[in-house]
Amino acid sequence: MPSRRHFLAAASAASALAALGLAPRALAAQGLRLGSAQPFSLDSLIARARDMARTPYQAPPAVPAEVLDKIDYEAHGKIRFKTADALFAQGPGAFPVTFFHLGKFFRVPVRMFILAGQGDGTVPVQSREVSYRDDYFDMPADSPAHQLPAGSGFAGFRFQESRLADQKAKDWLTNDWVAFLGASYFRAIGDLYQYGLSARGIAIDVAQADRPEEFPDFTQFFFEPSAPGSDTVVVYALLDGPSITGAYRFAMQRKQGGGVNMEIDKSLFLRRDVARLGLAPATSMYWFSETVKGTGADWRPEVHDSDGLAIWNGAGEHLWRPLNNPPRTMSSAFSDQHLRGFGLLQRDRDFDHYLDGVHYERRPSLWVEPVGDWGEGEVQLIELRTDDEIHDNIVAMWVPKAPARAGSAYRLRYRLYWQQDEPFPSPMARCVATRLGRGGQPGQPRPPQVRKFMVEFKGEALAGLPFGVKPEAVITASRGSISYVYTEALPNGVPGHWRAQFDLTASGEEPVELRLFLRHQGQALSETWLFQYHPFAAREVY
Partner of 442 at 20 to 30 A CA spacing, among 124, 209, 420, 514? Predict the structure, then answer.
């Protein structure tokens, strides 16, 4: 039952929103306090980011560190935004917004604003800040969060799947489908209703030997009310960091049973030189899989949010690069121009390959589709060593060819697809498994520097081969020698499921870059498989 305090606050908010041309029911949040109205437009947000880049970086206002330190993992887990105060809880649109609280691991305050107006000149668009108060949250009476002052800010936000179903229900919000939390990180569920990997607004100097990585922050978000019944929400964001500023527009669509699509329009401005500027970055976790079997690292057969990098390059070739947990930090670059798309995918969807209730088999894939021509550059893959699933150790991103110098500006548009499979799959057979083992011949001594590779492909292009015809495996290696090459249909009765096997002999510790595809009579039948083999790491496993 709403209290008198909630009623008075709602009346005040209703009056303010009516002045902005937004119906009182739009907030449907009976306790939110709003600041004064200010003009807003995407152009003005871009201009603001441009002006900020011309001045030295200023960190966000400090929140009492001694209080944040007390809001540890356990204390933070006991803090939950009240559903009665959710933004847009009763419309317009289908999706309400709830906010994350600050804490030990989410220390940067983020300011939230609601937009109102038509944006067509009839009613000017204005923004009002949602002021932070601890009574927006359910938390224990002795929670250290009560010690934060009013107006401290939030840590992030999430859109919920649906809104008011039964006003008498105690907790009427279902699962969330997109969340922004920490630096410029955000993520969405796919059509299998599971979170997994994350996207980022920007990646600055990832894995650079001469400098630490920088993590710019989304410091302000602006929420545009959706049309009634719309499945799309629009959010604007301001990015700020020591080396960069930016203005973003996110149009995010929750597709019925089909995952989440986003269209992103961003303008970036560099304060200083950046050695590695990562655009449209994705971050994931890969610990181990069926590729290389370790000796008792964990009880599960596989642990990863993504198992490979897929690229559709400007020449029309589809590439598949299985991920590694390398012996040391590795950076791989795939040069291209007129890129058509890339993504970190989770192709293995078999529960028996994971055996875990956290359901790695349901983790979404993330595909990046450029809108317009991004010119020359590289899809870069960064792989870091990890010994646990709690660390994100994979980054994939687009890095422009031109150096990122202070004063440079970028305008970029792209689409993100969060779903179980890539949205533009190759018509050719695709790689479904990569396995390594000891090389050599059965029944004979196995030489220590020889590794056997078994690479599986499946697809209609292989299913159409005449009976008795075998595809040819076309293999190249950056060093070492290839032997014992063989292709065969898997003895599982599945049409179009073939594997290519070969032995690689390579000494030393430097990685070997491998490339393989299947063809028949000069015609490619499969996507191109790429792999980075580490001989030294393999000796440790076998």
Answer: 514
Count other C-beta atoms under 10 Å from residue 104's C-beta. 16
The residue extents of the domains of the chain are: 1-156, 430-541
* β-bridge mates for residue 455, sequence order: 434, 500
**Which CATH code of 2.60.40.10, 1.10.10.10, 3.60.15.10, 3.40.50.300 fits the domain covering 430-541?**
2.60.40.10
Longest dimension (CA), the chain: 85
**C-alpha to C-alpha distance for 380 and 339, rounded to whole angstroms:** 13
Name which residue leads in pLDDT, 206 or 29: 206
* Cβ atoms of residues 100 and 128 within 8 Å: no
Question: Could you tell me the pLDDT band of residue 167, with boundaries at 50, 70 and 90?
Answer: very low
Report DSSP letters for 302-324, one per residue. Answer: -EES--EEEEE-TTS-EEEEE--
Rg over CA atoms, the chain: 26
User: pTM score, two decimals?
Assistant: 0.92
| H-assigned helices in 422-494 | 460-463
Question: Helices then strands (H, E): number in the chain?
Answer: 6, 35
Q: Name the residue with tokens 């291209």.
A: 336
pLDDT one-digit tens code per residue, 414-447: 999 999 999 999 999 999 999 999 998 888 888 8
Residues 288, 326 contacting (CB under 8 angstroms): no
* Residue with token string 């871009």: 46
Q: What distance lies between CA 308 and its chain's CA centroid? A: 14
- 246-270: pLDDT as tens digits: 999 999 999 887 899 999 999 999 9
Using CA atoms of 164, 170, 174, 178 in order, give the dihedral in degrees to the nearest 10. Answer: 90
**Is 303 in contact with 323 (CB distance < 8 Å)?**
no
